[in-house]
Amino acid sequence: MGILGLAKLIYEKAPGAVRENEMKNYFGRRIAIDASMSIYQFIIAMKGFDNGEGQELANANGDVTSHLNGLWSRTLRMIDEGLKPIYVFDGAPPELKKAELDERKKKAAEAEAAFEKAKEEGDDDAMERLSKRTVRVSRAQIEECKTLLRLMGVPVVQAASEAEAQCCELVKGGKAWAVGTEDMDALTFGAPILLRHLTFSEAKKRPVAEFRIDDVLQQMGFTMDTFIDLCILLGCDYTGKITGIGPQKAFDGLKQHGSIEALVASLDPQRYPVVAENFDFTGARGLFKVPPVVPCDQVDIAWTAPDADGLRRFLVEEKLFNPARVEAGILRLTKALSRKTQGRLDDFFKPIPRAVLPTATAAAAASPSSPAASGATRKLAAVGQKRSASAAEEGGPAAQARRVGVNGAKKAVKK
């Protein structure tokens, strides 16, 4: 779920914190990607509907391959653009997420029941809509995706718990530049930079949306602690929320009171007689601040040469991918690995602090005849005076005459 309504609120309250870019603008960047979210998107995007049944992309043997097709094509696209993806997979969910996961299972069961009812009624539109609500990513599909990435030479990281939190750990530790996910709670976990729409299909023509947490906090006028409280009030995966407190009330309330505790104390008991019984905001707050992660210094990140034979066996022989498509992909991977990545301009042009001399020393140094001026200073001053004199001479009558002579000689040659 992420954080309900957070993206919309940031666009309203801190529009300058969001930039939209083409993918190629991130060449050379290491991006820690929430793998589970991306794979789920691939399956949803490729799920079709035909003859009253939800259809997933499958090979000639009937094996579902939408997760592998999506991962193969989108990862190749990123690599073509010079990005360096790192896929991070979820570990065991935190205990605080149990209620949310139970609710998701309940909604999936309700969607399946509604689908069967729509099927009986012959409502194709409802069936197509509901079929996408029943999508689940299996453990076997996750393992197949890990196998594919390793064969491609792309780093795979196993998170201790939530993938978004592990991605943030990699960015904070300097092993990645940004987090790539659709879940806005990456910002709540403290991601300095969040990239959305990174794994969308090229056909959608959606620019990559870049969110910077420092700009969000500055433009909202919040501390990180207050921002975490805002995310909890909006609705997160780890606790319920207060009925009747929407995005605007949450934002205004925290601007005025500064914390959930102070906001709750200010609520009118007649209008808010019961704060949600499952509103464990202190537990959620603690999880966002100190999530279980594998320490960055214990994570090895390396891009390696693709295992061409392994890819042929896995994709062509086992999953029945088109051989020509696989060969083309192997070539793209090999070229990307051997290509020397051009350095980014912002890595070259870094501001260099200027040393400021004390006033008396600066004044002394300005005069080459001053005793305080060093030999090097006097030499530099002499060079500067010589250049100034030369420049003045170039503007004088003699210089103008020389230029006329030269120009006249050029004209004579042309004639």
In short:
The chain is α/β, with parallel strands linked by helices and 415 residues long. 52% of the residues lie in helices and 9% in strands.
What is the H-and-E element order?
Answer: HEEHEEHEHHHEHEHEEHHHHHHHHHHH
Cα-based radius of gyration, to the nearest Å: 30 Å
Strand line-up of the largest beta sheet = 1-9-8-7-2-5-6
Number of helical segments with 4 or more residues: 19
Q: In words, what does this structure look like?
A:
By secondary structure, the chain is an alpha/beta fold. Helix content is 52%, strand content 9%. It contains 19 helices and nine strands. The strands form two sheets. A seven-stranded mixed sheet has the order 1-9-8-7-2-5-6, with helices on both faces. It has a two-stranded antiparallel ribbon with strand order 3-4. Strand 7 (178-180), helix 8 (185-188) and strand 8 (193-196) form a beta-alpha-beta unit. Helix 4 (98-121) packs antiparallel against helix 5 (124-131), helix 10 (224-234) packs antiparallel against helix 11 and helix 10 packs across helix 13. It starts with 5 loop residues before the first helix and ends with a helix.
